[in-house]
Queue: 4 jobs
Job 1
Amino acid sequence: MKKLRKTAAASADPDAAAPTALSAAQGSSWTHGRSLAQRAVTGLLYVGIACGVLALGMQLLPPPAKPAAAVLTADGGLTVVQQQAGAYATGFVGAWLSATRQQPGTLLDYIDESSTSMLSESPWDYRDLGIVSIDPVDETGVVSVVVAANIEEYDMTSDKGLTFWPRRYFSVPVRIADAGLAVVALPTPLAAPVRDATNVQLSYTKTVSPNRSARTTVEAFLAAYLAGSGDITRVISPGSTISAVLPAPYQELKVTDIRSDREASDTPAGGDVVHVFATADVTSASGQRLTTTYALTLTARDGRWETTTVDLAPQESSTGATSTTKSTPTPTPSR
């Protein structure tokens, strides 16, 4: 059974997730941080003796201006190394689940062999390993990474010994230091995120009937976008970077419902904007079916509607104004 699948955020393969370029930093007594620290102290002692005279002479010179430290950051406010800690924790959880007492495997890349006596005689089968969240812990240099995976377990309510694959969540503290990354503790099982039971109220209150021009635009756009039917450049706004999904994942597409946040005129003035929420049934070449939804922004030009953006999320009625919805263009070559 294949135990691991790649996620969009990072590779969850425990054989590849422990980066060789990042040595383990200080951690608990069962991590590799302590042995590295001892070697580092010895090396620094010799370097310090050799540089003593030079350092004394440098005190007579005016100190140079110290440049500000450059910290690479990424979307969401996390530094690059904090995001690397997320991938590191994901690899650790995968190695922890798949390790056995006789074959600890890549778990030894994260913890000392003395800790493997706690391991199971057989591995845990898992799939769909991925990062849920990465949260820095104050100013400690530690990030708390939550990792989730579907794990095969026996159904205790079944008399037939059936198994199922519930989604399980684990918290992993990872210390970030100049020497590299180190796990501070073993994975901690957590409860799943709580679902908000309140009903979501969207702001799309107007029905766009089949004979309206806005609906024709949406149908043509989705057909080109998802099913490779037609030229998508004919139904998107000039300058839009939306491109069709390639290769087309679906053979057939049928739009079943479209709603808008205001009336979409059949003769709109140039620059008019309307937000729509479309529901469509899609069918693959093998006959598999799904129902999907799209939040889109349409802009009028030369008396017709064109698709400008695929919105990041549909508009909720409680958010108020409808013209400030954030949207994103589809990455090229496919979304």
Job 2
Amino acid sequence: MREREQQPVLISNLRVFAQMCMLEQGALAKVLAVPELNPSIVTLTIRHTDWWNWEHDQPLYFNGGWLEGVSQVMPPSVRELNIELESVDRKKYQVDEIARQMMEKWFFRRTDGVALYPFQQQESHWRGTSRWERLRWVRDEILEGVIDFYVATLTFLPETRLQRHQTSPVARENANSTPEDRGSLMLSKLGWKTISTERPPFMTEKEQMRYYRQLWRNRPDIQRSRGASEDPALLPANQQKPFLGSLSLMRRGG
């Protein structure tokens, strides 16, 4: 029996969530190299917990060594590529500087030779829980249990779609150079410092319970409103505030 020819898989939007370690090992290139996968729009999302050493509040950094591998396998079907950079709101200035350098220096190339250049940068904000992997990250809280996040979204388009839009001369120069001459694709480190705080970066479940117990004991108004026997640490498990095991990354507004 004659086998059917494999038909191309038509995907309008492909979103890839990648930790830095996986991205630098070529994870995005491996996804785009899947045979018969032909996405129109590719979005690479770097979340707050995907950056190198985010737990220790190390300065944000983005290595561009993986770009060449992506350009070697990006199919001609791609007509838009987005990079989403998410971090806590207080690191907005770091995200913006990384985005600025990307918009100035970076480009991508499809396998048909068409280059994608920076088109625009957009920003958004959202609010989510500070609990992640059974820990409450109090270091970054703006309210109890709440963290504000900032996202910069960079869009790259094929030159044929940019029309009269002025592309970055540095990005264009990089696109016309050899890989060996593209050192400027590496983003500069600017000597940012870690945050200084007297509080620990996170609390375990036991530490959270001690915190709420101490708060209850030191707040007569809470005792009166809840009843003297309702120590939050002594409530039945089904009445205690649950500890979420992961950080929700659903952005408000879609």
Job 3
Amino acid sequence: MTEILKLATANGIWAALFVFLFFYQLKDGKQREQKYTETISALSKSLSQSTDIKEDIEDIKDSLDEIKTYSQNRYSKKSAAKKENAT
């Protein structure tokens, strides 16, 4: 213990404090980076789910357009048949 105190006084307490804070900052930086990585992963997962939902909505729109076209064609044929029968 006395040897550490001698080194601290010889090199200055500021040098020891600098080294301590430097390593503390490195450790804290690793933890922060880990949290950022987890956040990015969660956001990427959410984005891929949003993309899947968008594709599903596009499929539903296409299906509705097909149903609409089919209904319009069927109605047009019935109207044409009624006009033909009326004459």
Job 4
Amino acid sequence: MQVLQNRINSFSSKPKRKQGKSHNIKWPHPEYFTATPVTLAEAGFYYDPSPEDVDNVTCYMCGKELSEWAEDDDPFDIHFKKCGKKCAWAVVRCGLRSDMDQKNKFVFTDKNRLPTSKPMEKARLETFTYDGWQYDSVKNHSASSREMARAGFVYSPVEVGDDLATCLYCGVSLSGWEPDDDPTEEHRKRVKSSGIPCPMFPDIVISKSYKDTTVPTKIHDGEEDEDEAPARAGSSTSKTPRSSHAKSTAKTPRSRARSSSKSRKATGEEERRGGGGGGGCRTRR
């Protein structure tokens, strides 16, 4: 479930049957909910229901389970509040909102949230090492997981086994990594050529026309059609942080004994209490 599209598809696949139950289970909430299949998938969740919790979702990385979603519950805010100290995806993706001002410009008030900080680099690294990064097994390959994380990338595959990596700050996505590619330099070149600011490289001077812009939905390095999937190094097709529709109102939930579908189980006192916040969806574990 590390592939975004697979998580999205989990909400629309064939209705699920659990333990021989006679009724089908499908995603129950309307499209006007803040928590939609797309926003939940982008926040790291896939659909993992049971007869008792028909809207239960699970984070592919940390195993966090949430259910009983209310109309205004925001998957990004809730995931970050509950798992921001231990889940790499919650840190690098869902926490982006906390780094932005009302104009969607990056303003880092916490030094540990700076893109070049060790905690953020460590979280990005975990997106590569979670299920294995193919070039870590190639001797002297320059695009190792550590170098990719240091360069500001997270692993963002569009299909199992590909090597697409994305900077969530500026939207640059690159694939087709060669043994002598320097991830930092490749990233830097794309930022310079696009003219779009990236907080990974504050030393790069951006023209005035871009200074007050928000991060774009898509940028392209070539002339490929926008509908085509990203392929070679140099293409750039990643999404940027989604704007918040409403303030999260997640409440402290009751706990359940059901184990997560992932082997990486949630731990810690916060999980036993169910996390912070008030109102809205509840934690299952």
